[in-house]
Queue: 2 jobs
Job 1
Amino acid sequence: MPGVTIFFVIVIVVCTTFIILFNQIAAKLGQLESKLKELEAQLKKEFILKQQPEISREEEEQIVDLVKSARQSYITAVAVYNESIASFPGMLIAGMFGFRMISEGDDIRVPDSTSDDDIS
């Protein structure tokens, strides 16, 4: 029976590790989404101010590049998250704890108790 006990201990450790990883990925996705929203708001503001001569075309292009970069980071993070819950053993953990696939338009909420210091 010691072999069975060791097996269950390993399963519990793996499950706990996956839960931690899923929470970290979800938190990072929430941070990326928040940054995207901030950048989009700044871009909208810059477009409004575009009519003013002080705003240069170069600054506008930099903002657009930042938004594109943040969006690509978000898409990549979503792909990694989705792949991790679609493969074994992630699918078992995801099913047990209600994790679901994320599409690009989903609204992702992260609990307020998560701080940047807790996320690696």
Job 2
Amino acid sequence: MKNLILLIGIHILFISSSHSQIGPYTRNIPQINLKAATYDVNLARQVQAVKEFEYHLATADNYYNYCVPVESNCQKMYKSLSHSSWLDGVFTFSHGNVGYTALWLKNGRSYYFHYIPFAAIEAWANSRSPGQFYHEYIRGRYSLSNFIGYEP
């Protein structure tokens, strides 16, 4: 009988110790190899850039639709760049402190830029080479938003 009680006691001790919580000083803790979460900075920047692009494109579309009608109170200017081999025309429009510029190419593509001032548009239209003017004064100074589907 003593042996049976001793065996039951050892068995209960074994079961309770195997199901107890693991404390900070417990030995033989099972090792779980979990990799730390990684944060892809480039992916985060790309996602942010796409969000900003979509916001600016939607805003530019709204301004374009608001400013194009003749009766709108936007400041606007269209200049032909047809003396260029690849540029066709540029239309800049603004309302309040926000504006955009649409650029049409001879291949049928159109692009939005953040607002290019009237003085720069005037100088661009009067330049001897609009393509060279674009590369020297527009590209890199005014951020290009992207392709739009409007025809001049």
